[in-house]
Amino acid sequence: MGSGDILFTVVAKNIDVLAMPLVSLVYPLYCSVKAIETKSRIDGQQWLTCWVLYSLITLFELTFSKLIECKPDDVLSTAEKYIQENGPEAFERLIARADREARSSYSIFRDDYEY
Fold this sequence. Notes:
It comes from Salvia splendens (Scarlet sage). This is HVA22-like protein. This protein is mainly α. The chain folds into two domains: 3-68, no CATH class; 72-105, no CATH class. The chain is built from six helices and no strands. It has helices at residues 3-13, 15-38, 41-63, 65-68, 72-86, 88-105. Helix 2 runs antiparallel to helix 3 and helix 5 (72-86) crosses helix 6. The protein starts with a helix and ends in a 10-residue tail after the last helix. The mean pLDDT is 78.
C-alpha cells in the first residue's frame, strides 16, 4: 500500500471533519471577498448577515456544548447506575410513573367526560 493509498483512506474516513470547515468557512469567506471586490451593497449585506448568523450559531454551540454532547451512552450508563443503586423494581416504577405522567399531560380529551 503506497502513501497515496494511505492518504486517500485517511481523507475518506474523515471526510465529515474535512468537509464541514470547507462548507461553513472557506466558501462564505471566498464569496465575502468577491462581494467586497464588487462593491455591491446587496452582496455585502447578504454576506454580513451570513457571518452574523454563523457567529451566533457558533456562540450558541460553544455555550451549550455540554447539553449538545449528551449521548445515549450517558443515558444508558446513568440508567445502569440507578439500577445498581436502587434495584430493577425501582427503575421499573420510575419508568411507569414517567409514562403515566407523559400520557396524562398530553391528553387533550378526557375519556370520562360526559356531554
